[in-house]
Structures are given as structure tokens and as C-alpha cells.
Design brief:
mainly alpha, Growth Hormone, Chain: A, 0% strand
Length: 398
């Protein structure tokens, strides 16, 4: 639903008279709820195991989808309130899935955990493409006015996964006596820099993915189908390709370099998307940003998992909360900035918002530089490597 809602932004704005800030607020609510779910359930997951919570998460997503579809009927005088409440429900489930899927993959015995983690995040991109393509097809078939039917169709998937995770085999988690404590994590400057980085990476990635559809339709003057299929789908394809390539060939590649140059490239894409007078070039820049941000989120998870290999669900919860914070605030700020741009401004509202989004990958460059400096200090003091490569053994958790 994180990727489905933006496809309906313009439809919701036209149908219910919503502003840029109000539809952007749905993204803020989505990720803020995921943050709360990440932090609230991390301890219970470590205590009671993964299965009860992974099944509960899928059930919440299903119920939230159904509420979203029926919001105009359940709240006829204020459909937006119903949409916000539904967003809270499915986002709670989404937060659990985000937390637990990374923990499940990390627990699987393997010598290629970095590749496995990158592959996991690559499937997010392939799912993104599936949502965009199939939703576009369903809008063409049913019409945008029948968007509740489309949401109900998508609700079938989390319902099927609910039954699937009742019986799928799961690897055992790290025992309590061997688990790195949350206090140790929070006391580590390296870990806090990683959390900051994943927040900036989440802001850079999700801001572009959340606003590309509306940007292409309302600002670039392109059709919704063109913006969704050539903008969002290509963004997701490049996002997934970048993650798949690192998963397959990143064995001896320092992930820091990939993240640094990816951030630099993403900043350029934001600038071109905002300032190019040619709509097609702007759209290509929006899509190209997917390659730049590909490793910012999973690369941060890989760095943390290498340095703290015995951390339990709490580490993934904090990382997910950091990423979700950036993913929540980033797109919302772009919408808020767009609402404050006067009609007489030289640049259109969303162009100004897109220009402001350049700050996210630029700030990521600063964060990565700080990580590099800290890594060199650790190398000099303890002999710890500066970078993280896919084949390296876990770094010390001190």
C-alpha cells in the first residue's frame, strides 16, 4: 500500500478536494505508524518468536486495505478521516513486515548474507513494478472512479500471505544470552551514523517514488499512464537492478563507494528533474534516481548487520524506524513546500518541492563522509576495516 497510495494521489485530490499536503500527510502517517510498530514490537518478537507477529502483520495489512476501500461509505461526511484511519491500520502491519522480513533473512544460515539482504530489498522493487503496472491496467479497465475495487483486489495478497506464514519454516533467532543489547547499539557512534544514513536514504528514495506519479501528471503535463509506467516503473526497475547487481557482484566491492557515488548521482537526478524545461528529460531523471538510491537503504542494513552480527530484532527495529522516519518526513516536506509556493513563482510548486528534495542525497554524502572518518579512526585504533564488503566477516560489535 506504500506504493499503491501515491498512484491514487491525484484521484483522491480531485475526488475529495485534498491538497498536496493532505495527500503527502498520508505518507507521513504511513511511515510514522510503521516507526511505532517497529519499536513497539521488537522486544515481543525477541521474546515470543517471529511467527505470531509476521502472521498478525499480514492480517493488519488486509484489514487496512478493506477499510481504505470502504472509507467513503464508512465515513460519508469525512472520507479523508476514514482514509487516514485505514492508513494507520495497514501501516501497522507494514511496519511489522518490514521489521520481520529482514530479521528472517538475517537468521538464515548463509555465507552470503549481504547478497541475501540485497536480494530481499530488490524484491521490493519488483513488487513496486507489479503494483504500478497492474494498477495502471486496472485503472484503464475500471476507471479511476472505481479505485476502491482496485484496493480490494490488492487486499487478496496479504490475506494469502497470512495463511502462508502460518506454516512456512523459519530459522531460529539469536538466543537471549548471546544477543547484542539495545544499549550497546545506541551507545555506538557508528550505529547512530548508520541510522542517520538510512533515514536520509529513505527520504531520498521514497520522496521520489511517492511524488513521481503526481509530478508527471500535474507539472510535466504527461498522462498518468506515461508517468506511472515510464516514470515509476523505470525508477523501480533501476532500483531493483542496482540491488540485484550488488547482490550478485558486490562480493569484493566496498559498499561505501557504491553508496557515496549513488548519493552523488541521485542529487544530480533531483536537480535535473526539478530544473529541466523538457518534460521527458525530467521524467527520465526521476526514473534514473532509482539507480542512485538503490543501495542507500539496504547498504545501511548490511553495514549494521556486519558490525553487529548478534543483534536481534531490536537492531532491525531501530534501523527500520530510522528509514521510516526519513521516508515519512521526506515526501511530506516536499508536499508542504509545494503548498507554500505562490502561484506567481517562477517554478511550479512541485518543481520547488523536487528541488528541495536534492537536500536528502546531499546530506547523505556528508553522513557517509562521517562514517568513513569514523571507520578510519576505528581502523587505526583497533585494526577494524573502513569499508564493508559482501564477503568480509562480521565486524566487532564493540
Amino acid at each position: 500500500m506504500t506504493n499503491l497510495s501515491p498512484l491514487l494521489f491525484v484521484t483522491l485530490m480531485q475526488g475529495f478536494g485534498l491538497s498536496f499536503e493532505q495527500v503527502g500527510r498520508l505518507t507521513l502517517i504511513n511511515f510514522f505508524t510503521q516507526i511505532v510498530a517497529d519499536l513497539a514490537f521488537s522486544k515481543p518478537v525477541d521474546r515470543y518468536g517471529v511467527r505470531p507477529f509476521i502472521t498478525f502483520g499480514h492480517l493488519m495489512v488486509f484489514l487496512g486495505f478493506v477499510m481504505f476501500a470502504f472509507a467513503p461509505r464508512l465515513f460519508p461526511t469525512n472520507p479523508y478521516l476514514g482514509i487516514m484511519l485505514a492508513t494507520v491500520v495497514f501501516s501497522c502491519g507494514g511496519g511489522l513486515l518490514e521489521l520481520l522480513l529482514s530479521a528472517i533473512v538475517q537468521a538464515i544460515p548463509s555465507e552470503a548474507k549481504a547478497a541475501a539482504m540485497s536480494l530481499l530489498h530488490a524484491f521490493y522493487a519488483w513488487g513496486f513494478i507489479g503494483v504500478v503496472v497492474l494498477t495502471s491496467v486496472m485503472i484503464a479497465l475500471f476507471g479511476s472512479v472505481n479505485w476502491p475495487i482496485i484496493v480490494l483486489i490488492w487486499s487478496i495478497i496479504p490475506l494469502l500471505n497470512f495463511f502462508n506464514f502460518l506454516r512456512v519454516p523459519l530459522a531460529p533467532q539469536v538466543p537471549d544470552e548471546h544477543r547484542t543489547s539495545t544499549r550497546t547499539l545506541l551507545a555506538s557512534p557508528f550505529f547512530m551514523l548508520v541510522v542517520t544514513g538510512i533515514a536520509l536514504g529513505g527520504a531520498a528514495e521514497v520522496s521520489m517514488s511517492q511524488w513521481t506519479s503526481a509530478y508527471a501528471e500535474t507539472t510535466l503535463g504527461l498522462s498518468k499512464t506515461t508517468g506511472d509506467l515510464l516514470g515509476l516503473c523505470l525508477f523501480a526497475a533501476l532500483l531493483g537492478t542496482g540491488r540485484m547487481l550488488y547482490g550478485k557482484y558486490g562480493k569484493n566491492i566496498d559498499v561505501w563507494h557504491v553508496m557515496f557515488w549513488g548519493s552523488f548521482f541521485a542529487a544530480g537526478c533531483y536537480l535535473v528533474a526539478a530544473l529541466s524545461p523538457i518534460p521527458w528529460i525530467s521524467l527520465v531523471a526521476c526514473a534514473g534516481c532509482g539507480l542512485g538510491v538503490a543501495l542507500l537503504w539496504p547498504g545501511s542494513v548490511v553495514n549494521a548487520a556486519h558490525r553487529f552480527p548478534l543483534a536481534g530484532a531490536s537492531m532491525f527495529a531501530i534501523l527500520a524506524a530510522g528509514g521510516d522516519t526519513g521516508a515519512a518526513v521526506g515526501p511530506w516536506l516536499l508536499g508542504l513546500i509545494a503548498d507554500f509556493v505562490p502561484a506567481s513563482a517562477t517554478l511550479s510548486p512541485l518543481r520547488v518541492g523536487m528541488l528541495a528534495g536534492t537536500a536528502y542525497p546531499l546530506a547523505m554524502l556528508v553522513c557517509l563522509a562521517a562514517i568513513r572518518i569514523l571507520g578510519k579512526r576505528n581502523h587505526e585504533a583497533k585494526g577494524v576495516g573502513v569499508g564493508t564488503k559482501g564477503s568480509e566477516p562480521p565486524l566487532s560489535s564493540s
